[in-house]
């Protein structure tokens, strides 16, 4: 009896929780190994962590302005569509669906499974099949919750954001206590230039930026935000500063307790830290870290389903995925679509190969989105934006993103080439399916199948525009 549309249920607190919950996830607990491995020393790895935080702040400020200029949900996709056109936006959507998002979700899911099982098998490593099974169970739980209720997904995200900050505090406090007692031996000769390999630095940045990734999440749910012109910039600035401070202190704590070889040899850095520094919490911290990863999975599903929802509404994805459940008011088809790809990547993937695989495509399109901000400013100088950043912020962020993407071809040519091929494979699909009209027979069959699925899933088109 009531109108079917996505309600504005995301307040400032929930926006802040969405950002914190998406950024503080598996990254800070698995990326220190990748950053250290590719930066070469403790000192350079800390520089990379701070640089990634500063770069994330630049990107977050650009997206905050885009979110006040462009009033639709959809994040990277809608920003590229509105500023650079339909072809690059479809290429992003293609790469995001088939490479970026399932690989990212698989990384977080595998981290969840590993930390959840670590206390039961310590000091041995948990069996890989068991890790993958628990990873999939965790992912399916989040998938079910997002299909069931927007409100409960948002509440879970708020609760788990508190858990994430508690997990960081349990690592930071004992580390700072040991540092204050004079345990600085692991910081001796911190900037060892002999171990620095410049062409590996892009991979160090990929690992660091993966830990910070999530600063763009409010842009995916813009139409569901309360007072977005005020709440987007405020939530972005406060959350990114909080995470930068937390990550720097966490890494200093890691290196206070663990040496370089300890970090590189550890399959789960946070667990190794607790085993060495705070044995009384040996069973608590891994569970907190696993719950932290659980929150990141929840945030990822919550936001990416909106990308598919908006792309379908814009005519670049099948219309079924712009439909909403008649009672739950959730974008049920868009939420469920990632199920098979994530399952496949969890079953066959390795965390660090997946990390490099999807990072190339992600940062290429984020760089294009901020390039789109510069283009949009030039095309629409008359457009008033309630939040505006200095021009050097999008310019410098775009240059750094595209330069890092170009350099990564030298660092990991195999995985980066796979990612590049995945993006380019979208060209023929765009021209054969999107750009060119379907025949009448194909259109009739397509709408027949859509109608049957619509009846099965109990979903309908949104009745009220929210942008």
From TrEMBL:
Highest taxon, organism lineage: Eukaryota
Transmembrane segments: 12-30, 42-64, 76-100, 120-142, 162-183, 203-221, 233-257, 277-297, 332-354, 360-377, 389-410, 416-434
A GO CC term assigned to this protein in UniProt: membrane
GO MF entries: L-amino acid transmembrane transporter activity
Membrane topology: Multi-pass membrane protein
Locations listed in the record: Membrane
Primary site of residence: membrane
Keyword Disulfide bond: no
Record keywords, A-Z: Membrane, Transmembrane, Transmembrane helix
Protein name: XCT protein
